[in-house]
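testing teh design pipeline on a random one, pls ignore if ur not involved
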């Protein structure tokens, strides 16, 4: 049974904790309900509220939150969530110093293979542990300067509502916490369970853009599992400038073999598939957000907005601006 540790410090905000508790409770009951007619089942996850000393903590709203135990006495957690906490920018160094034991505990959990998530100012603790080194990260906009001054290795992008690394998740704003909880359900349990939870709650798991594995998913010949794995690899990295040589190495084939099998299965090269992933992601951001076009180009993996516009026009048949206008017109209510 996976164990989830929800870490609350003095001054923690209740919202993220509540989303985690409610969502994992819902999916526990859903999963048990699937099998209750067949066999007696236990809840698939165990959730604990942890504090540094095991004592109740005072939340940001002044209420007291009871704890299930301390971080030092807790069982090995498969997932750790650091709740957002109230911090004054001038007190960040004191905040980090006072929580050095927690930072060491996070680092230990990370080295042991746990997934670590943080929201709001608690992303500073995650960065201080080293778990965010060379990983995508986000933080509240007002903490950007302080974060960059102290931590150079994380790939910080404060425009992201959620930043997902290999085993790290950051939410920069309270708006991202429901989506973060849903993404963690998927990571710890399964995509099917997360899909059920998304339908029940109507939470958008990807507020920054479309799900990376569903932006474009042409049918792959079932007999070529390598192409399917390569698709998944690209879908997870399409915004991160992946090279075809890296993809070939990851699939343990030559670039020539990779290209040949992609064309046989999908009718396109791996690079063409990558470009299509990016354009489809851009389409959804153009239709669903007011982000500037140059920003969208950057988010989907293009440093040159002119080249992005050229590729977009080739695949969409119109410019990004015209696509956005067309999408807005389609959403506008029609007069009777």
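output:
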């Amino acid at each position: 049974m996976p164990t989830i540790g929800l870490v609350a410090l003095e001054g923690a905000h209740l919202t993220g904790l509540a989303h985690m508790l409610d969502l994992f409770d819902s999916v526990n009951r859903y999963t048990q309900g699937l099998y209750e007619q067949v066999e007696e089942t236990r809840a698939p996850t165990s959730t604990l509220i942890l504090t540094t000393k095991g004592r109740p903590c005072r939340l940001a709203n002044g209420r007291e939150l009871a704890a299930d135990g301390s971080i030092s006495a807790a069982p090995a957690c498969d997932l750790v969530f650091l709740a957002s906490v109230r911090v004054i920018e001038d007190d960040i160094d004191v905040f980090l110093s006072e929580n050095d034991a927690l930072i060491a505990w996070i680092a230990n959990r990370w080295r042991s293979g746990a997934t670590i998530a943080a929201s709001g100012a608690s992303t500073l603790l995650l960065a201080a542990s080293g778990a965010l080194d060379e990983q995508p990260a986000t933080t509240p906009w007002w903490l950007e300067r302080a974060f960059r001054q102290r931590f150079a290795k994380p790939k910080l992008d404060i425009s992201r509502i959620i930043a997902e690394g290999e085993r790290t998740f950051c939410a920069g704003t309270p708006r991202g916490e429901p989506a973060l909880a849903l993404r963690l359900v998927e990571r710890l349990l399964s995509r099917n369970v997360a899909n059920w939870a998304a339908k029940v709650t109507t939470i958008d798991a990807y507020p920054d853009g479309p799900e990376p594995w569903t932006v474009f998913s042409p049918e792959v010949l079932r007999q070529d599992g390598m192409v399917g794995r390569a698709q998944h690899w690209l879908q997870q990295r399409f915004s991160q400038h992946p090279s075809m040589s890296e993809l070939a190495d990851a699939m343990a084939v030559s670039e020539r073999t990779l290209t040949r099998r992609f064309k046989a299965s999908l009718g396109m090269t791996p690079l063409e598939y990558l470009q299509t992933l990016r354009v489809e992601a851009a389409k959804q951001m153009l239709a669903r957000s007011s982000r500037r076009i140059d920003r969208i180009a950057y988010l989907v993996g293009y440093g040159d907005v002119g080249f992005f516009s050229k590729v977009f026009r080739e695949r969409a048949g119109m410019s990004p601006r015209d696509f956005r206008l067309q999408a807005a017109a389609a959403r506008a209510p029609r007069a009777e």
